[in-house]
């Protein structure tokens, strides 16, 4: 059973306590640090873009 | 006192968001929940102080309340061929970087700094993407048959079959020709060399050769036919 303060990271999908919220998506501190160090020219960058996109629901595109 | 008031305001906002009672809002991809409005100057200062203390809540709030900026900037790049969801993800990464690297002591607003970071992030991504447009993978499927088998680029790539033997064949042919030519008389050999540029010179017309040797062109033509026939016989003997 996960502790109440544990949240699942949208990037690595691990359960962590420390991190930030990107509105409704939780990003753990480790992934946040990796994102900060990753440049759009890096191979790994697309992975983060895909993970963040996956955490969105395309059908609910409600931007005015 | 300010902090208590801020908390009450936040709880109130959350309740509004939960029951979706505010129709005049910008929404984020990921649900029907409206994006929070930008923070006031005081609220922003308060959150920046929290960030300075190392409190992640401050960071989250700053990100959350600047997401409208991400959506606004991402929409400007919609005509680039990159999907809006990707643009928002990239812009969000830019915003995270902005909040992490923002220095409140510098005379610049967070929103101004964040806008630059978000736009830069998207522009860098687009530049990388444009470079890669010209690249293609060996595993790129070109076609799929009725059974679902993919025809990959690597399946159709290759070199000419004779790429290795081509040079060897040429050397052998040259030697055969040299050997066949050695069977000809001096004059016959000279005519062939002049006509076909066999000694590294350029090829000459029958007329040119005839003029140089002081004989008629028709005679050169007859001789040439005769010599070629003979060379063919010599080749057949050798092969």
Can you walk me through this structure?
- The complex is a heterodimer of chains A (64) and B (239).
- Chain A has 64 residues and is of the alpha+beta class.
- Chain A has 2 helices and 4 strands.
- Chain A has a two-stranded antiparallel sheet.
- Chain B has 239 residues and is mostly helical.
- Chain B has 2 domains: 115 residues, Up-down Bundle (Four Helix Bundle (Hemerythrin (Met), subunit A)); 73 residues, Winged helix-like DNA-binding domain superfamily/Winged helix DNA-binding domain (Arc Repressor Mutant, subunit A, Orthogonal Bundle).
- Chain B is built from 11 helices and 2 strands; from the N terminus they run ααααααββααααα.
- The N and C termini of chain B lie far apart (106 Å).
- The chains are: A alpha+beta (64), B mainly alpha (239).
Low-confidence stretches of chain B: 16-26
Count every beta strand of chain B, where a strand is a DSSP E run of 2 or more residues: 2
Question: Low-confidence stretches of chain A at least 5 residues in length (pLDDT < 50)?
Answer: 57-64
Mean pLDDT of chain B: 83
Give the distance, in angstroms, between the N- and C-terminal Cα atoms of chain B.
106 Å
Q: What's the helix-strand series of chain A?
A: EEEEHH
The best one-word shape of chain B is: rod-shaped
Q: What is the helix fraction of residues of chain A, given as a range?
A: 25-40%
By secondary-structure content and strand pairing, the structural class of chain A works out as alpha+beta
Oligomer: heterodimer
List SSEs of chain B in N-to-C order: HHHHHHEEHHHHH
The CATH topology of the largest domain in chain B is Four Helix Bundle (Hemerythrin (Met), subunit A)
The helix count of chain B comes to 11
């Amino acid at each position: 059973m996960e502790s109440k303060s544990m949240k699942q990271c949208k990037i690595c999908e691990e359960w962590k306590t420390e991190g930030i919220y990107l509105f409704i998506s939780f990003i753990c501190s480790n992934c946040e640090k990796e994102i900060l160090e990753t440049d759009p020219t890096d191979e790994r960058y697309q992975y983060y873009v895909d993970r963040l996109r996956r955490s969105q629901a395309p059908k609910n595109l409600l931007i005015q | 006192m300010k902090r208590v008031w801020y908390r009450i305001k936040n709880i109130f906002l959350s309740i509004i968001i939960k029951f979706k009672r505010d129709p005049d809002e910008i929404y984020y991809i990921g649900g029907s929940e409206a994006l929070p409005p930008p923070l006031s100057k005081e609220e922003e200062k308060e959150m920046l102080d929290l960030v300075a203390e190392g409190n992640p809540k401050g960071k989250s709030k700053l990100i959350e309340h600047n997401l409208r900026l991400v959506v606004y900037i991402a929409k400007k790049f919609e005509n680039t061929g990159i999907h809006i969801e990707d643009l928002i993800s990239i812009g969000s990464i830019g915003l995270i970087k902005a909040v992490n690297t923002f220095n409140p002591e510098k005379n610049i607003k967070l929103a101004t700094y964040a806008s630059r970071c978000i736009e830069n992030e998207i522009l860098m991504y687009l530049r990388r993407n444009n470079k890669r447009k010209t690249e293609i993978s060996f595993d790129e499927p070109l076609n799929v048959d009725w059974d679902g088998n993919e025809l990959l680029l690597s399946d159709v790539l290759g070199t000419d079959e004779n790429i290795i033997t081509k040079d060897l064949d040429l050397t052998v042919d040259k030697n055969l020709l040299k050997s066949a030519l050695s069977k000809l008389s001096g004059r016959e050999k000279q005519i062939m060399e002049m006509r076909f540029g066999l000694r590294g010179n350029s090829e000459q017309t029958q007329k040119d050769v005839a003029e140089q040797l002081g004989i008629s062109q028709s005679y050169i033509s007859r001789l040439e036919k005769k010599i070629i026939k003979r060379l063919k016989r010599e080749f057949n003997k050798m092969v």
